[in-house]
Amino acid sequence: MTDSAIIDPATTNVPVSLTDRAAKQIGKILEGEDEGTVLRVSVQGGGCSGFQYGFTLDDTKTDDDLVLEKNGVKVLIDSVSVEYLAGSEIDYVDDLIGSAFKINNPNATASCGCGTSFSI
């Protein structure tokens, strides 16, 4: 038995969004990278709550990737990860405990203290 949940973004009609703060930080990160490099956001099994978010730099778009564009930066999300991120907001926070990308995911029923893993 597998522990999974399927959320169909086509039926929920709620896209993944990117805040201005996140777009600005992504732009800073990509300044020193080769042209065509973008941020890829993914959801993988693991983490202390069951799933974890992944952030990598990528220069290859696949046919089934969701492409988010804001303020001149692009973010790619694979079709499987989109199912878990439907309705989410990708933000960037800079506070006393550090700075990091944060995903505000309405599908998550629990998350760990560091905010990098979640369960549905």
Brief sketch in words of this structure:
With 120 residues, this protein is of the alpha+beta class.
Structural key phrases:
120 residues; alpha+beta; Hypothetical Protein Aq_1857, Chain: A; 6-stranded mixed beta sheet; 3-stranded mixed beta sheet; 3 helices
Low-confidence stretches: 1-12
Give the N-terminus to C-terminus distance in angstroms: 16 Å
Report the count of strand segments. 9
User: Mean of the pLDDT scores?
Assistant: 81
Spatial strand sequence of the major β-sheet: 4-5-2-3-9-8
What does this structure look like?
This protein has 120 residues and is of the alpha+beta class. The protein has a single domain (9-119), classed as Hypothetical Protein Aq_1857, Chain: A, CATH 2.60.300.12. 18% of the residues lie in helices and 39% in strands. It contains 3 helices and 9 strands, in the order αβαββββαββββ. The chain has helices at residues 9-12, 20-30, 79-85, and strands at 17-18, 38-45, 51-58, 66-70, 73-77, 89-95, 98-104, 110-111, 117-119. A 6-stranded mixed beta sheet has the order 4-5-2-3-9-8. Strand 6 and strand 7 (98-104) form a beta hairpin. The longest helix has 11 residues, at 20-30. It is globular, with a radius of gyration of 14 Å. Mean pLDDT is 81; it is low at 1-12.
